[in-house]
Amino acid sequence: FRLAEHEVREGGERGRELGREVAEVMGRPFEGNVAVRHPLEVLGRQEAADRLRAGVERPLTGLKVACYYGCLLVRPSEVVSFESDPEHPESMDKLMTLLGAEPVRWSYKTDC
After folding, report:
1. Phi, psi of 102 (to 5 degrees)
2. Per-residue pLDDT tens for 80-95?
3. What three-state secondary structure class fits 31?
4. Sign of the C-alpha dihedral computed for residues 96, 98, 103 and 105 taken in this order
5. What letter does residue 87 receive in the DSSP assignment?
6. In b/e form, how buried is each residue of 19-52, taking b as 16+ CB within 10 angstroms?
7. What are residue 103's DSSP bridge partners?
8. How many helices (H) and strands (E) does the chain have?
9. 102 has which bridge partners?
10. What are the two backbone dihedrals, phi and then psi, of residue 42, each rounded to the nearest 5 degrees?
11. Of 3, 4, 74, 93, which is least surrounded by CB within 10 A?
C-alpha cells in the first residue's frame, strides 16, 4: 500500500491510474492525508510492544519461527523505510521474540 501511495503522490501515468482506482473503490479522491503504515511498523513501536508484552497470556514458548519479509515489505527502502536496515530486517523477529517464539536464522528472509 505504501508503494501505491508513493506512486499516487509522485504523479505520472501510473500514479494517476492508481488515483482513479482508489477514487472508484473509496468513492472519493485520494487526498494524501492518511498515513499508510504496515502492522509491523505499528506493533514495533515501544508503546505497542509494552502493551503486547503485558497482554501475552499464552506465550509461544518452544515454537521456532522462520520470519519471511519477502521483497516488497522492505523494498524499495526509500519508500517503505520502517526498518533501520532493509537488507537485515528485524521487526518481525522482535515481535515473535516478544510473543515468546524463537526466530531462527535463515538465508531466504528477504528473497522475492
Report:
1. -115, 105
2. 877 888 888 999 999 9
3. coil
4. positive
5. T
6. beebeeeeeeebeeeeeeebebbebbeeeeeeee
7. 65
8. 6, 2
9. 64
10. -70, -45
11. 3
Cell 522475492 belongs to residue? 112
Q: Which amino acid is at 77?
A: S
CA 34 remoteness from chain centre: 16
**Which amino acid would we find at residue 40?**
L
Report domain extents, the chain.
Answer: 1-36, 37-112
Asked whether residue 24 carries a pLDDT value surpassing 90, the answer given is yes
Give residue 56's pLDDT band: very low, low, confident or very high (50, 70, 90): very high
Predicted confidence band at 39 (pLDDT cuts at 50, 70, 90)? very high
Q: What is the pLDDT of residue 3?
A: 84
Query: Can you list the alpha helix ranges (DSSP code H) found in 1-112?
Result: 2-10, 12-26, 39-43, 46-55, 77-80, 91-98
